[in-house]
Amino acid sequence: MILIGLGANLPGRFETVRQALDAALLALGAAGIAIERRSGWYESAPVPASDQPWYVNGVAIVTTSLNAAALLRRLHEIEESLGRIRSVPNAPRTIDLDLLDFNGQLSDDWPILPHPRMHQRRFVLDPLAEIAPSWRHPALRQSAAALLASVDPAQITRPL
Known about the structure:
Blueprint: E1 2-8, H1 17-30, E2 34-38, E3 42-44, E4 55-63, H2 68-81, E5 96-102, H3 122-131, H4 144-149, E6 157-159
Antiparallel strand pairs: 1-4, 1-5, 2-4, 3-4, 3-6
């Protein structure tokens, strides 16, 4: 299973953040990355906590002929095409496409797999548990539901 996390808290050139995320979904398809299933959208407070706008997040299960490194490069290209500017970590962003898991691969090299913080983020685990409740973290061997139960309760997400 290949999992991609989607998120944004700035609309960029779009009227709304959700339009930016919809544009990202279209761009994925145009790049040969097929969306097999996707979660609903979730509103989430920034992590770590800050005064920046709240995010809209979701998770998609995709298929592609690309390997993990090529897929992550393509995700970065799509982000850039949609106006993402990388500045400092955890900065507000017009689009964020994260490679969360690539068929259960484990890697400490680039790309790091699974995503190194996904198991600590409610904004990833809530939508992931919605679409893939039986998915298990490749390194921790816990289900999305079990990981979700252990996440800091101060992290806030709400289905939209």
